[in-house]
Design brief:
The chain has 17 helices and 24 strands. It folds into four domains: about 190 residues, FAD/NAD(P)-binding domain, CATH 3.50.50; about 130 residues, FAD/NAD(P)-binding domain (3-Layer(bba) Sandwich), CATH 3.50.50; about 110 residues, no CATH class; about 35 residues, no CATH class. The longest helix has 21 residues. The strands form seven sheets. The chain has a six-stranded mixed sheet, with helices on one face. Strands 10-19-11-14-15 form a five-stranded parallel sheet. The mean pLDDT is about 95. A hairpin with a 5-residue loop joins strand 16 and strand 17. The protein is globular, with a radius of gyration of 24 Å. The protein is of the alpha/beta class.
Length: about 575
Amino acid sequence: MPETKKLRIAIIGGGPSALFIYKRLVESEKKNFDIHVFERKNRLGAGMPYSEDGACAEHITNVSDNEIPTIVNTIEDWVKSEPAIALNFKVTPANFNEFKVLPRLLFGDYLSAQFQLLLERAKQQLIDTTLHLSVKVKDLIHEKERNKVWVITENRKLEFDLVVISIGHSWPIKLEGKVPGIYDSPYPPCKLNLKLNHVVAIKGSSLTAIDAIRTLSRNNGYFEKKANGKYTYKLDVGSEQFKLTMHSRSGLLPAVRFHLEDSHLRNDALLTKQEIDEHRKKNDGFVSLDFIFEQDFKNLFIEKQPEFYQAIKDLSMEEFVDYVMDLREKVDAFTLLKAEFVEAEKSIESKESIYWKELLGVLSFAMNQPAKHFSAEDMLRLKKTLMPLISLVIAYVPQSSCEDLMALHDAGVLNIVSVGDDSEVIPQEDGGVIYQYKDENGKTLDVKYETFIDCVGQVALSYEDFPFKSFSENKTVSQATIEFQSPAEGLKYFDKNPDKVIRINNDYYLKVSGIKINDNFQIIDEEGKSNNEVYMMAVPYISGYNPDYSGLDFCESASQKIVDCILKRIAQ
């Protein structure tokens, strides 16, 4: 494309994903861009998690400055340049610590400031940028014959050469507002400013559940630190019967944040793309989950912790998970939380990582890109065995959240029950739910709750949930699938789960959540062709191919691949 011609690019969504895409474009030193950013809110950068849509004053990040990919400047430098903003959150240049977590709303202010700095830089570089704030994109239409994409808003239809979809989190409303006492998510958290005097059911035990617990507990009581240093919780008058019951499939709490040493992005011990490609050639085009587990997890201990490597080197993935989970399941969830809290405190004080936990996070990041090339057999193993452990360990619950949970439990206000995979939440016409599950003796319990909050976190959204319907109707997008390496295994799974498998002649494909994309995050149509005009970075809709899609590390790595692909197009 000639340097003089402007490439019109639409970025749909203005949160952290869009921020990294925009950063890459601005830093490319190309001037032939006409960039339009569409954001349904009136603010750029913060997105849902770091704005009032996803946080109140009591909510904090689970990452610190030293772990965050550089945008324009560090949080520490920004705090020094904007002390008045940071002071609102009791953060000052003097007390700032790059290893400590921050209030999420403060982090949102930082991300918004970074976007503004990039806008100023783009203006200096004569890069055209148009902001469409408080504008909802209703639909997208791909004009295949002309290689163009139309962006449809409430009152406009604009044509673009390229579109990057980065709309971020989505919390579908199902029963909220229809059945009293039911909340489909805890977001925005201001809706949980409730004065209650009964037991509240929390579905899930993730960071999302902890968000809800922090808000509800502060509306029905208060935390205080005693003279002896003990952190306690007291209920308010009128909330004497207020309690919180977490319902977890495993009955476990996520692990405590510790000192993190490595950056996933700068870990040069991980498999390279070339090494993965060579492996695929020898494995019928598939990436073996066992190969990734050996190379991007177990082998990293050879140098980091040789003693630990000797202990696990002969364990399969399943055996390793059983080994770790068995230790966790034998201990009461809150007893384990207190033990891990002490362990994490020592890790932070000594600035020494708990390597097996950190490297599990590295593994989760490392397998994200090749996951679409797993066999269906391996994808089923991953979801059944490894991802439940990963989701527990790499949640990295911050210390202050742990202190809240322990104080609430000690006060008899918070408990957790294991409900298994076959539990059911039954809405009641008069309000609330009946939570039906089996206890540890196999007895079915039906427990009535006046207030129920679904806190399982961002769920993987299906192909049918894709928001831009013209793409679905015109077959511009397609159902994400993973091929079975063994037709015999595919047939066996198809016979038991016909609605989850697509059969084409003698080949079998497992349906996974979301839509198909290639390694450059370009969407793939129903004919199997990659779309050179549309890039998909909206994580809930690509989770079938990206099992671990959370965090700014994902935004950083995905934006690199997308913009590299765009720059190659310009060069051609």
